[in-house]
């Protein structure tokens, strides 16, 4: 019979704040996270051992997930708060920030270019996602002029915003990203107000 593996979880109390750029400087103990959590899921053949191992895994996962989220800056926290698995969080961090500089740059630029807004989620929630993607690029030491940031976002509007998109494209001056976001916030509020009015009139 294979006995459950018991292993002390790595101590993350001295973990430096995670912001993506500091990933490589985090303590070595943190890099054992994925291995540790994988090993705690090894179970024996008895139902009792299996149940105990699962309970331990759930406790350890909750503890490690909490440690990682608590050490993240706001931008990373917003990206990872919906991840249920500590191992998944660490693997994603490793893939996203642990590679070579050129690889990371290509990754963040690719995510930025692939971004596309849709009608399924709040516009401002998606704008926040876009801002995070821009922040990732800037954190890699690459510069993006703010007018370019705004113009790229303008091209990412969802289908139902096509008329408003055309209207903004005919602006005689270049908008900064913040100005565009302010316009979008007002327009979304108008959309919601019109929707409420149409529902109440039924």
From TrEMBL:
<protein>
    <recommendedName>
        <fullName>Ty1-copia retrotransposon protein</fullName>
    </recommendedName>
</protein>
<dbReference type="Pfam" id="PF14223">
    <property type="entry name" value="Retrotran_gag_2"/>
</dbReference>
<feature type="region of interest" description="Disordered">
    <location>
        <begin position="1"/>
        <end position="23"/>
    </location>
</feature>
């Amino acid at each position: 019979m294979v006995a459950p593996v018991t292993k002390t979880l790595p101590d993350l109390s001295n973990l430096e704040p995670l912001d993506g750029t500091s990933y490589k400087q985090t303590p070595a103990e943190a890099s054992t996270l994925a291995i540790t959590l994988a090993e705690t899921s090894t179970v024996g053949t008895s139902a009792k051992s299996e149940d105990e191992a699962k309970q331990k895994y759930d406790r350890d996962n909750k503890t490690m997930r909490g440690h990682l989220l608590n050490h993240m800056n706001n931008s990373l926290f917003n990206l990872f708060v919906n991840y249920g698995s500590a191992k998944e969080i660490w693997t994603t961090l490793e893939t996203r920030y642990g590679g070579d500089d050129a690889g990371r740059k290509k990754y963040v630029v690719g995510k930025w270019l692939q971004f596309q807004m849709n009608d399924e989620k709040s516009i401002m929630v998606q704008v926040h996602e876009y801002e995070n993607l821009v922040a990732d690029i800037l954190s890699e030491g690459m510069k993006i002029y703010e007018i370019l940031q705004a113009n790229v976002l303008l091209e990412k509007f969802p289908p139902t915003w096509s008329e408003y998109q055309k209207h903004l494209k005919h602006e005689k001056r270049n908008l900064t990203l913040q100005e565009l976001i302010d316009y979008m916030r007002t327009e979304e509020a108008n959309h919601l107000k019109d929707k409420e009015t149409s529902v109440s009139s039924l």
